[in-house]
Amino acid sequence: MRIQLNVWRQAGPTVAGQFETYSLDDVSQDMSFLEMFDLLNETLIKEGKEPVEFDHDCREGICGSCNMMINGQAHGPRARTATCQLHMREFKNGDTIDVEPWRADAFPVIRDLVVDRSALDRIIEAGGYVSINTGSAPDANTIPVEKDKAEAAFDFAACIGCGACVAACPNASASLFVGAKVAHLALLPQGEPERKRRVLHMVGQMEKEGFGDCSNHGECEAVCPKGISIAGIALMRREYMKALIG
Amino acid sequence: MTLDAKIPAGPLESKWNQYLKNIKLVSPNNKRKYTVIVVGTGLAGASAAATLAELGYNVKALCIQDSSRRAHSIAAQGGINAAKNYPGDGDSVWRLFYDTIKGGDYRSREANVYRLAQISNAIIDQCVAQGVPFAREYGGLLSNRSFGGAQVSRTFYARGQTGQQLLLGAYSALSRQVEAGTVMMLPRQEMLDLVVVDGRARGIITRNLVTGKLERHHGDAVLLCTGGYGNVYYLSTNAKNSNVTAAWRCYKRGALFANPCFTQIHPTCIPVSGDYQSKLTLMSESLRNDGRVWVPKNVGDKRAPLQIPEEDRDYYLEKKYPSFGNLVPRDVASRNAKQVCDEGRGVGTTQLSVYLDFRDAIKRLGRDTIAARYGNLFEMYERITDENPYDVPMRIYPAVHYTMGGLWVDYNLMTTVPGLFALGECNFSDHGANRLGASALMQGLADGYFIIPYTLGQYLAGTAAGGSTSDAAFAEAESSSTETIDRLFSGRKKRTVLEFHRDLGRIVWDNVGMSRTREGLTRAVDEIAALRASFWDDVTLPGRQDSLNKNLEFAGRVADFMELGELMARDALQREESCGGHFREEYQTPEGEALRNDDDFAYAAAWQHQAGGPALLHKENLAFENVSLSQRSYK
């Protein structure tokens, strides 16, 4: 296949970026999107040009490193799919594809498509955990958990922290990310003792980092590679209200 | 050099408790005076960093990813073993120990493996208390499954994402300590060298992957938790950034590297589809519980799988191993797949794959049951191959998955460099020549949560805290790293790093892969040496040192893989026997199974780097006082 790419190039956080156009003649439809970028970079290097920098690691949709805005959609056209698991068979011969980094005030561009997502780590550090020191846990089966609740908690715990929800949100809100962690722990008995403190601190940190508010757009759920439900956001809000007034 | 594993005296069952009784402790107000550097934040690194910080040590943790949550432990699918015996099916610490030592084909240390089995239960308790959402029964208690051919159900799991959930648990514990100010977390940092002062590990040199600046970090101990070296093969199931560099640079500073040729080839991966392929994707071997492996009986049978009638199919595992069938251990399943493909009976366009067929399971259990068990795996397969495994059989082929070899450590997890410890996959200690399924997560967390917190104290109690990065050894290590980087930029710009890596991978895969011969290994040593010379002469490196430059990162890693590949071949060459994942064609039983030689090779091969000459082999003899060595048989 022949593919034309408009790729965002930016040398550093403080310099202006711009789109550059490249065309590739020999793209196989069985390539993953990132393998197509490998091909592009090999071509650029051989031409003596600088390759496009992008984050990637596991290439099996679980580490959350890859983050490309593809034709205006976070992770591209296929539902519940991270960029690394998107294949070129989703595109047609002759297609032009725009590729940009995640765009949000809280995710400054480092170089090309690489952005700084450490704000998400700082939100977890603010309270996304159960405070239990190593070695102090009781036998695992002393805390029974209803199967349905465990399953629901898992659905939220599946978040890979890629930040697509932020990139897709018109307000650049991290509500789905925060909601997922709050919901995961609020649904389990282990999360109970720190329940109020957790939601207050995490939401507070989200605001501090410059993420926007949620206005129920739902785009975050649509692009989430793990299909995390916006029910997590509703649950986070209930938890927040309860923590404030309870 | 004599290798002293420092195994505590006494009966196997009480060695660890006896050890704990006698260890030296660091007093609470002294702990904060010690700085511990933790390199890597996978299961081993994150659990170690969090626990040591909880104890009061001053911890500096570094990782190459943009967040500590992304280490490759996250991709582990299947589960984690523990000897809880919740199902009451006869499991025990002893049985978990025995299965692990036997599964490793008797090339691991009894004392280490027994301790691992003892600790396994506490890991599950810890993870559950953190909120890890393990699978549960309707009664609310934890669910177990049998995994990788084990005859008891001892595997705890969280759908097909157990590694992710365990890592996020450790990451949350780590995050709590970052918030508390006890851990300084430095992401996007790559360790380039170990700093040794007066014979002790006292720090590391890193490259800040954003600014390109080299940094000096001082510590009273260094914990290496940097994973395995499977990417030496170019294609593997490892993440693209997984590498041997940190471990290799420690090797060059005096840490011994043990059993580098012990690598695990996992039988159920999605096959290679073309030259552009950048990595291989594993599918949990739980698929072999219901899928049947077969190839056409006749060479040259090009019919589509559904057109091949029953009588023309060869269910070769079921035929050859009637009692274990499709559930034979990983090394046996992989080798047999290679064998039928070598015979010309492989399927798919490349003829380098075999079928894994769910037709009969769907007929027996119904499509819904199969979907409930493997739905996410089937979806992943379809996403990659564009084929629907409910209708046509999957195609699978073995791929490099895990490396049992690694830095040699004693019972304290300390390498031959005092103060340098190695945890998790980057050490060699627990899996011998073959790792059993669901044991990697167990080992990483055992090392980090429950072993190093004690053994490190034992070391630090006898070591004065202090020192600084102004020591001459830091300057020397830093300038050595700078030289390597400058040299990488000075190639004649003929070929890319990726091209060299792919060539290296081909040599290592063909000769130090599933099946090895004296001739092939000898050839590999020469070919790798030639490739390495051409790499330094001709490599093209774009961009600059003083900015984010992933090609520079890759170049440094490939340079180290070039040296490791040669050592793997040398190690495989000296081990004139077959055991576990190391199959030497010259040493097999009449039935074609691995033939061990316990009289001459019941040792760990630990290699010492020698500047300007071939590595020097040291042997740690493995004493088996509690198990009797038997030929593995899965017939």
Shape of chain A: elongated
Beginning-to-end CA distance, first to last residue of chain A? 60 Å
Q: According to CATH, what is the class of the largest domain in chain A?
A: Mainly Alpha
Mean pLDDT of chain A: 97
Largest sheet of chain A, order of strands side by side?
A: 2-1-5-3-4
- Our count of helices of chain A gives 8
Give the CATH architecture of the largest domain in chain B.
3-Layer(bba) Sandwich
Major sheet details of chain A: 5 strands, mixed
pLDDT under 50 segments of chain A (min length 5)?
none
The fraction of residues in strands of chain A falls at 5-15%
Compute the number of strand runs of chain A: 7
Distance between the termini of chain B: 42 Å
The CATH C-level name of the largest domain in chain B is Alpha Beta
Radius of gyration of chain B from CA coordinates: 24 Å
Q: Quaternary state, please?
A: heterodimer
What Rg of chain A, in angstroms, do the CA atoms define? Answer: 20 Å
Descriptive overview:
The complex is a heterodimer of chains A (246) and B (635). Chain A is an alpha+beta fold. Chain A has helices at 33-46, 118-125, 147-157, 164-168, 175-186, 195-208, 219-223, 231-245, and strands spanning 3-9, 18-24, 69-70, 73-74, 96-100, 109-111, 114-115. Chain A folds into two domains: 3-111, Ubiquitin-like (UB roll); 117-245, Fumarate Reductase Iron-sulfur Protein, Chain B, domain 2 (Orthogonal Bundle), CATH 1.10.1060. Chain A is 34% helix and 11% strand. In chain A, the strands form two sheets. Chain A has a five-stranded mixed beta sheet. In chain A, strands 6-7 form a two-stranded antiparallel ribbon. Chain A starts with a strand and ends with a helix. Chain B is of the alpha/beta class. Chain B has three domains: 12-262 and 404-460, 3-Layer(bba) Sandwich (FAD/NAD(P)-binding domain), CATH 3.50.50.60; 265-400, Succinate dehydrogenase/fumarate reductase flavoprotein, catalytic domain (Flavocytochrome C3, Chain A, domain 1, Alpha-Beta Complex); 489-596, Up-down Bundle (Methane Monooxygenase Hydroxylase, Chain G, domain 1). In chain B, 37% of the residues lie in helices and 15% in strands. Chain B has 17 helices and 21 strands. In chain B, a hairpin with a 7-residue loop joins strand 20 and strand 21 (616-621). In chain B, helix 3 (43-55) runs parallel beside helix 6 (162-180). The longest helix of chain B has 25 residues, at 550-574. The radius of gyration of chain B is 24 Å and the shape is globular. Classes of the chains: A alpha+beta (246), B alpha/beta (635).
